[in-house]
Design goal:
binds magnesium ion; 1% strand; 16 helices; mainly alpha; binds farnesyl diphosphate; two-stranded antiparallel sheet; Farnesyl Diphosphate Synthase; 318 residues
């Protein structure tokens, strides 16, 4: 089994103690039970991942005794996330994910599409067990946003005129809304304060940092080729900022990038303008501002856990 609890979030688990560890173990068991009906679905779950979204659900519901409802909500969010990655790899013809061969590369387009469908529908079947329309509404709105974000990414592919605003809107749809939903579900299932805006901001920062990592690599760290976004025409913040600083990059047509070696060279050019660092700093400032604005009393375990979670997210990309 792969490592489930990524190191940057150990401090959160430490603070949450046995109840949080038990919650994370329970969602792991539940995910495997749900996915066990199909080989590729199980392989997807067993490939691990940071389980960051379930952690957000549990931290948003910290202190609650509604263990079963929180576990269902956490499993549902992770199932949606897993479904989107399996589908994303089909859309991107991706050979690797998390350093492993993708379901798409291993089993083919049809099998991967169907596996994504299974994981996606299982999420709603699981959350429906909580019998709470507000929870279903939160998750379905986030998954619609995800799909719209992906469509937006397709519409903007290869374009030289993608603006900062348009990029941020895409990141919001693609990533921030599901992070926000994880926090909302934790609050709804556990009865705590609404932390949607916190989830939204850390989700946005997460996507920006992930996009920076695509440019800075290295591949051994990301489990993906450096410059993969450039090769599939995805315009991200480092390139948008670098285009303002480099005439060569401003004139670049992404379609002309011949392969991984040239993508690597373009990544170097982008980094040399300082744009990757600027994008990274923007994300770090977003996280810092979000921590300052947390609507949870200082001195409480929940506040500390949220701060540590935000720190862990940044540390993961350090
Ligand atoms: C990974 O990000 C992909 C996403 C966050 C969203 C993908 C969404 C879809 C495929 C739409 C399908 C929607 C549902 C609800 C099933 P990325 O492509 O930036 O990162 P990567 O480098 O890890 O691929
Ligand atoms: Mg992708």
């Amino acid at each position: 089994m792969s490592e489930v609890f990524a190191e940057p979030f150990d401090a959160v688990l430490e603070l949450g103690g046995e109840p949080l560890r038990a919650a994370m173990a329970s969602v792991e068991t539940r995910l495997r039970q749900i996915a066990a009906v199909e080989t590729n679905a199980l392989a997807t779950i067993e490939a691990g991942g940071k389980r960051l979204r379930p952690l957000l659900v549990f931290v948003a519901g910290l202190g609650s005794e509604a263990h079963v409802a929180l576990c269902r909500a956490a499993a549902a969010v992770e199932l949606i996330h897993s479904a989107t990655l399996v589908h994303d790899d089909v859309l991107d013809d991706a050979p690797l994910r998390r350093g492993r061969v993708t379901i798409f590369a291993q089993a083919g387009r049809r099998a991967a599409t169907s596996t994504g469908d299974l994981l996606f529908s299982s999420a709603f079947a699981e959350l429906a067990l909580n019998e709470d329309l507000a929870q279903l509404t939160a998750l379905s709105a986030a998954s619609s946003a995800l799909a719209r974000g992906e469509l937006m990414q397709r519409a903007d592919a290869w374009r030289a005129d993608v603006t900062l605003e348009r990029y941020l809107e895409r990141c919001e749809m693609k990533t921030a809304r599901l992070f926000a939903a994880a926090c909302e579900l934790g609050a709804l299932a556990g009865g705590g304060p609404s932390l949607g805006p916190f989830g939204h901001a850390v989700g946005l920062a997460f996507q920006i940092l992930d996009d920076v990592l695509d440019i800075t690599g290295p591949a051994e760290r990301t489990g993906k080729r450096r410059g993969a976004d450039l090769l599939d025409g995805t315009v991200t913040l480092p390139l948008i900022l670098a285009r303002e600083r480099s005439p060569e990059l401003a004139a670049l047509d992404l379609r002309t990038i011949s392969g991984p070696d040239e993508a690597d060279r373009i990544c170097e050019l982008i980094e040399a303008t300082g744009a990757a660092e600027q994008a990274r700093e923007h994300a770090l400032e977003l996280v810092a501002a979000t921590k300052r604005a947390l609507p949870v009393s200082s001195g409480t375990d929940q506040r500390r856990a949220l701060e540590l979670l935000a720190d862990g997210l940044v540390q993961r990309f350090a």
